[in-house]
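User: Can you predict the 3D structure for this chain?
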Amino acid sequence: MEYIGLHSQIRRNNLRSTFLLLSFPALILLAVYLVLFFTQGGPDGYIAEVNYTFIKVIPFVIVAVGVWFMIAYFSNSAIIRAATGSRPLERKENIRIYNLTENLCMSVGMQMPNLYVIDSPVLNAFASGIDQKSYAVTLTTGIIDKLDDRELEGVIAHELTHIRNKDVRLLIISIIFVGIFAFAVQILFRSLMYGNRGRKNDKVDGRVMLVALVVALVVYALSIVFRFALSRKREYLADAGAVQMTKNSHALASALRKISGHSNLDVKSSDVKQMFIDNAPAEDGASFFSGLSGLFATHPPIEKRIAILERGL
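Assistant: Here is the predicted structure, written as structure tokens:
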């Protein structure tokens, strides 16, 4: 796959970020309206009353979404470190990683990101951050120990490309908003299961909560589809960008071959796992379910990525 160019990719990701910033709140408002429609209005209800209530609710929804987003925006680095158990990688601890990263950054004129390490024998790495201060590349001790300099350079270049392309910012924004839907579904489900006990109008309240839960699940599913649509192609583009940076496609192919089958890191958040250079779906289900997991996988099959790299892109 040809690398389409840094500026083109940055422009596309900036447009997608703007689209996500607008579409996810719009989905939340749509969900609120549907809940009001089916619980207060419905086919035989008064649409005017539903619309009036919806207009009154809009400011509260926007404020709640804004507060959620701001908290996640400013604390995403701390959340990611807590989920992965990463810690800062000091220069004196591993000058090799600093030298490789600094040389790559200087070759393309980018500011060096923060470096973190996860104490784990598995082979994996990821980039994160939403702005220049928070951009970071995180490596496991396993990938540092098992890869030679050329292979490790390819992996670091892959992660730096995600930063340069603004992939990491786009992904974090999508994770933030999908998290809102996940939280809403959990609250509605708990309310449906436990919130109506002992009330006289159990049937009415139960129907209201059931409608709200169904609407939330549908909108949550749509938000996940949006997020997955962003994921796969960015890995191919980051591979191509890494080759452009290192001028060596076979080194990254060799690194991915070593990573394959040895990348499953125990992370507290499945959302964070999709940032890793390899996030292969589990292969312990039946073929039908394995096919579904592949359909909703955040990464393309690593074998395909290796094959493209070995053809010299």
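The first strand starts at residue 87 and ends at 88. The CA atoms of residues 120 and 141 lie 6 Å apart.
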